[in-house]
Structures
1.
Amino acid sequence: MLPTIEWRDDRVIMIDQRKLPGEEVYVECRDFEDVAEAIEKMVIRGAPAIGVAAAFGVALGFLRVERSKDSRAEFSRILTRLRRTRPTARNLFWALERMTAAHQENQGLPLDELKKRLIAEALDIEQEDVEINRQIGQFGAELIKDGDSILTHCNAGGLATAAYGTALGVIRAAFEQGKKIRVFADETRPFLQGARLTAWELEKLGIPYFVISDSMAGWLMRKAEIDLAIVGADRITPNGDTANKIGTYSVAVLAKENHISFYVAAPLSTFDFSLETGDQIPIEERPPEEVKEINGKLITPAGARVRNPAFDVTPAGYITAIITEKGVIRPPYEKTLADLRK
Ligand code: MRU
């Protein structure tokens, strides 16, 4: 499968996720500003993939710093710009913190060496993400039975990570184990990550699937056509509250009402230990055009006012378990998460 993002010849190459599934085209980023714009405009999206892109953005920006400049000031300029791109994805800030630590720890090195060190750190973040997703896949696949029908929301696949995926990684691991499963992919209005990206990945992987519009999930659960739901996460607080793509909360409430397990799959880098509950998670509001238009064509009265929160928060009480690279945790999350990190 095509990589989501790649460091190649001191440039960053990304598949343009806005064009999928119609066109498989790549965007080349030559500086951190290109990377920042790519994140903002959703060329690349999905919390772990945003984290990898941000790390590459820092390495790329720092690589271009000239000897005559104050390299510390340049580093913080790059960071400030990348920090402003997407407010909800915890992995963005986590990756920037890791790059900052690498920068600080290697201050004594000559500039050229420091540049190489930052590139190596960004590549480590990318490689580790692939390994972490495989581990999430292995733990999560144990929760899936042969014959299960699985609902997923948004895209938490290879495109949303360095490769393999979190929620879709679990589905993929179960499929690789020979389990006969099928997937219901919510289309995920307004950006259609499910219809465009999850379906594209499932198609390539040969995993049987149906695309459904978001409003169909409840009815299919009631008709016992869905056995479990699994989604990714953008930010999780230590009590288990989980921010993920708008519409996730509705899926979780419907799952509980219909006695269906609702799982979240995410790496530990998605947890925000500086917050206490989901109420403190910043929720990104995206441009109204995403709701008012489809493929650039207006579908509402031109003057319609819209709201476009890109994420919602599912309270921990709706989440059956959270699948991480270190294992599966169940409520009470404060305790099981602390035990997991020991
Ligand atoms: O706005 P997006 O497409 O970046 O939102 C993506 C999601 O909500 C994903 O479910 C989440 O980032 C997890 S991706 C492994």
2.
Amino acid sequence: MAVAANHSSPPAPRDQRGRPLGVLRLSLTARCNLACPYCLPDGVEPPGLLTLSQRLEVITAVVELGATSLRLTGGEPMLHAGLEKLIAAVQPLRATHANGPGLREIALTSNGTLLSAERARALRSAGLDRITLSLDGTTGESVALMAGLGGADREQKERSGAALLAKVLTAIEHARAAGFDPDRGALKLNAVIQRGANDDQLLPLAALARERGLELRLIEFMDVGNRNGWRPEAVLSAAEMVERIGARWPLEPLGRSAHGTASRWLYRDRDSASSGAHLAVVASVSAPFCGDCNRLRITADGVAYSCLFATPDGGIDLRPWLGPNAPVEGLRKAITGLWQRRADRWSEERQEAWNRGIPPATHAAPAHAEMAYLGG
Ligand code: SAM
Ligand code: SF4
């Protein structure tokens, strides 16, 4: 069932700022087996999780409205038992020719803790194109701190952190062995950097990624949700990250691709085709990219949001339009309406307030929906 551009395909909607819909970030669960303090998931699932067939309905509708990329996230998406089944089930939505409608990539963001060799192979054979694994440190201490690992004392925490680090490093190799080739952008590493917490890990993380031939994506600590203790002083700007790493390994700017979140850099001592030649930074706080944001987010219980910084009541519940008795047009109309009403530019507004001398922490910020709910 490829998505065909035929007379029955609805016109691709544009939002109030002329932005098309391009990416669907679908959260499969609000639960997580870690408790990173910068994210702090609930630990409990919201009631009314979507079923596989409801998720397929949603994905199909969003793809018909122009999305070409599907990112599966959470919470920890690998906790979802139906992950491989869902990936296999969306394969018919793939584009059948270049520039034609349909999915061009299916990606997963995971903390890597559950990525065994077997599951990596299962994900690959189900049709997953790309995996991004998250790792915020290279020592037991830093990993434990950033993953919110508990322990009776410092030594115990360090041991738990070291065990988690080893698990993620093994997961990287499982993914590589299963065919997720970093040289083709199919395997990357995410790291959130928080000033005063793990900014001493910048160079070690870059070294680790270079050694393992991976692109490292450094993410500024964002003010998503309401309980991660965000303060502007804890943000290490992407510019400073690049400066610090560039002082050790000179970098050449490659820019940010249209609709992308990351600005990419090339290590001057590496050939651009070689593995681990690139570094990326996601400057959503210091240099917002709302202007061409094309991402729609849908939670595990079927609420659609058009911005990562949306208020909890800023989404629309899609469940009334799902199921065998609901007319498919209703679902498409609901998503189209949300997208056409969309005028979000939260990060830019935060930045503008900041420039006017209003610190972001006091900028009239409405309560935000939580990151583990929205899926990052
Ligand atoms: N559990 C998976 C993981 O950690 O990769 C997927 C979900 S997680 C919400 C997706 C991404 O969002 C992760 O790379 C995580 O580091 C990032 N993230 C979570 N909270 C963040 C925050 N406050 N600021 C910046 N990035 C954050
Ligand atoms: Fe879990 Fe990912 Fe949030 Fe960490 S960032 S608590 S791994 S959902």
3.
Amino acid sequence: MTQRVLTGITTSGIPHLGNYVGAIRPAIQASREAGVESFFFLADYHALIKCDDPDRIERSRLAIAATWLAAGLDTSRVTFYRQSDVPETNELNWLLTCVTAKGQMNRAHAYKASVDANVAAGEDPDAGVTMGLYCYPILMAADILLFNAHRVPVGRDQIQHIEMARDVAQRFNHVFGKGREYFVLPEAEVDDNVAVLPGLDGRKMSKSYDNTVPLFEGGSKALKEAIARIVTDSKLPGEPKDPEGAHLVTLFDAFADESQRAAFRADLIGGLGWGEAKQRLVNLVEDHIGPMRERYEALIAHPEQIEETLQAGAAKARAIATPFVNELRQAVGLRRMVALRAPAQAEASEAKAAVPVFKQYREADGQFYFKLAAHDGRLLLQSQAFADGRAAGGWVKRFKTEGAAALSEALAGPVALADGVAQAEVEAALAALLASLADAA
Ligand code: TRP
């Protein structure tokens, strides 16, 4: 069975080398595997949670889309779209919001971190916390569940969000599924082989630490300048260096093959100067991303082409999302108006199906009899013989007007329960008969 793999990229920044090595490159590689159907999207609704600068959102969406395309994403193989071009996301978001426990959102790491920071600063616990931030995990669950993704490649910090998506999916399945599993339960996929790229100062490369190496922005000049600022120890050229302690080497490893790695280490131990080592890193990275940068620049010069690519991606995504959300609307009761079987009517008609019948007849002996048969033909009651047909008919009439109330008197007299039939069953059958007669009147 094909596995659906889905991941989103929040459009609040400009991609750096760490994003490329940690997310973009492995995702594009994975999308080329057989048996995998990939969904990559620009999480621009999510970006609004962190950013209220429209121009930055716009720049970021363009830069991220161009980066993925320049890095070799094959949009004929994958579904590549903007979250905000698939409004079904928001509709599902609401359906999920209505089955999500508030207490669960209270426990979300991102929200709790804000609260903790506020408390530590002596502020109101919810200072600066928007409902967007608070409900962030539900929107993310909607992204994932809308396409019933099996696997969600994410960083460690996102694992809790995937667990929440599973919980919400389970809850919806339970409440509305009636035996049908509308949602697949997604799994987080954290790849330990993918390097967490260190930044200039050795901490994880991240915009929030201001230690990033740009991927395409600023051209090769900016790349070179950033790499020049990588912090190293102060050993001089000619002195042996320890490659294992140097994050410059980790950066090099992210682009090097085995023999390049070995040669670089040997040269550092042999006294290669840091300045020279940085130049080698620049050359290596440039070999990889130089050709992509050219494609990037060509794409950025024609945003209308990127727009077209994303529109086509949205159409592909919506071909799945629209009918699915329609099914979900049915499931929760948002349906077209049609003549309903109101619950009371439905019960009555079910009862009608279970209505027993009286039969009056005359045997060869010339005597009159009646019997009550269940809706399925089983015998419930049998009368003894009456010489007078009207006497038999009188009892039938009493049953039809009094229902089960006439039963004990009848059983004490001329009527007997059929073999193996419980009195309670006959009472229920007579009640159903009475109800159906009242209904018909
Ligand atoms: N929250 C993710 C992040 O910040 C981005 C994201 C949004 C996402 N929706 C998603 C990732 C759905 C995976 C699946 O990295």
4.
Amino acid sequence: MSQSKITVLHGPNLNLLGTRQPEIYGYETLDDVNNALREKAVIAGWDVNCLQSNHEGELIDAIHAARTDGTQAIIINPAAYTHTSVAILDALNAFEGKVIEVHISNVHKRESFRHHSYVSLRADGVIAGLGTQGYQAALEAIIKSAT
Ligand code: DQA
């Protein structure tokens, strides 16, 4: 039987987590976030595949790969592409599993250009403002909805 799989996608600048505007994004690094997700997922029998990219096309390629590699759900923080990328929205629309959009900060409390998300037009759930805990909440929601 193939293992249940989640693809976690992090958009531009999230490789700098821990040192990038920590007053907004906190002190946890991307490795901390990914390792915590893997630890929690493995207990529930899920495999987690994580990718960060500063390039829109690479994120789109990863979403395309998720259509056929057994991924049941995508957790995505598209970062700034949230507010600009119709191409990421289109790619997610071609993916049939669950999509949870995560933002570390509460984008609705910030500049008005961050209030609109193209990805939210596709997302089954949106989490914003819980810090890096938001990724854990997304993972829990996916695991719970599958059991
Ligand atoms: C972010 C919010 C975006 O507006 C911003 O461009 C990011 C990170 C967040 O996680 O809070 O890079 O997605």
